């Protein structure tokens, strides 16, 4: 979308922007987002979620069908992508320019994402070299809403004896990020699976030349790509 067609998010409350952003993120794994699922993600009651969905359906930002769930319309998706762009650019800026740790930036970006203008977002992107990914490997939407997509494999499914590169982390809770950092499993790290015990037993890895052992319940949140496709 051209700059004149990009959404003006100042017309929407933070609650609406958070609602649309959360629907978009949940839609990455679910074709339609159920009200109960969305309520849990937003930390609000199911009746409040339904009320907001009805309101946004009237504004043509979502499609809401009782018992079938919620989907974004193209207009709702544009707003969601703008907020996600702000958030992920802010996370990267906090790490690259201000020296924040990667487990500290989510809450800071949450607080600031609604106040960022499109001009400021574009300036931050230019300052950072127009990056495609945030510190956790999540794609940063471009100014036109475009997203660079990759074919990634969970580390738990990565074939033993094959080198790969950590490309993205699907669990970005601070505790998980700190644990992964202790194991050297940062975005860009080179990994190789040495062995994997059966029945979801531990995995032995070589991470940047150092042997590490992690559980498969952790490995499933580490997404890996071929070395030449990062």
Q: Rg, please?
A: 19 Å
Level-2 CATH architecture of the largest domain:
Orthogonal Bundle
Structure class: alpha+beta
**Beta-sheet strand percentage?**
15-25%
Oligomeric status: single chain
- Fraction of helical residues: 25-40%
Main β sheet profile:
6 strands, antiparallel
Feature tags:
230 residues, alpha+beta, Arc Repressor Mutant, subunit A, SH3 type barrels, 6-stranded antiparallel beta sheet, 8 helices, 39% helix, disordered N terminus
How would you portray this structure in words?
- With 230 residues, the chain is of the alpha+beta class.
- The protein has 2 domains: 1-149, Winged helix-like DNA-binding domain superfamily/Winged helix DNA-binding domain (Arc Repressor Mutant, subunit A, Orthogonal Bundle); 153-229, Ferrous iron transport protein A (FeoA) (SH3 type barrels).
- Helix content is 39%, strand content 17%.
- The chain has helices at residues 14-27, 35-42, 46-58, 74-96, 105-112, 118-127, 174-182, 216-219; strands at residues 62-65, 69-72, 153-154, 163-169, 190-196, 203-207, 210-214, 222-225.
- A 6-stranded antiparallel sheet has the order 3-8-4-5-6-7. A two-stranded antiparallel sheet has the order 1-2.
- α1 (14-27) packs across α4 (74-96) and α2 (35-42) crosses α3 (46-58).
- The radius of gyration is 19 Å and the shape is globular.
- The two termini are 26 Å apart.
What's the structural blueprint in terms of helices and strands?
Blueprint: H1 14-27, H2 35-42, H3 46-58, E1 62-65, E2 69-72, H4 74-96, H5 105-112, H6 118-127, E3 153-154, E4 163-169, H7 174-182, E5 190-196, E6 203-207, E7 210-214, H8 216-219, E8 222-225
Helix pairs in contact: 1-4, 2-3, 4-5, 4-6
């Amino acid at each position: 979308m051209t700059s004149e067609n990009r959404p003006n998010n100042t017309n929407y409350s933070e609650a609406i922007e958070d609602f649309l952003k959360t629907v978009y993120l949940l839609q990455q794994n679910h074709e339609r987002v159920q009200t109960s699922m969305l309520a849990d993600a937003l930390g609000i009651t199911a009746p409040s979620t339904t009320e907001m969905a009805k309101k946004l359906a009237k504004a043509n930002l979502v499609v809401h069908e009782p018992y079938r769930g919620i989907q974004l319309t193209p207009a709702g998706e544009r707003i969601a992508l703008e907020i996600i762009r702000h958030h992920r650019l802010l996370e990267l800026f906090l790490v690259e320019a201000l020296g924040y740790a990667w487990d500290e930036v989510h809450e800071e970006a949450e607080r600031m994402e609604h106040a960022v203008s499109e001009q400021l977002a574009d300036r931050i992107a230019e300052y950072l070299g127009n990056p495609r990914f945030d510190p956790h490997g999540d794609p940063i939407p471009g100014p036109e809403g475009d997203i660079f997509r990759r074919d990634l494999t969970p580390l738990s499914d990565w074939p033993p004896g094959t080198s790969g590169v950590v490309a993205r982390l699907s669990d970005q809770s601070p505790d998980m990020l700190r644990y992964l950092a202790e194991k050297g499993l940062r975005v860009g790290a080179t990994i190789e699976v040495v062995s994997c015990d059966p029945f979801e037993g531990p995995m032995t890895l070589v991470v940047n030349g150092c042997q590490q052992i992690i559980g498969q319940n952790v490995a499933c949140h580490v997404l890996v790509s071929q070395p030449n496709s990062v």
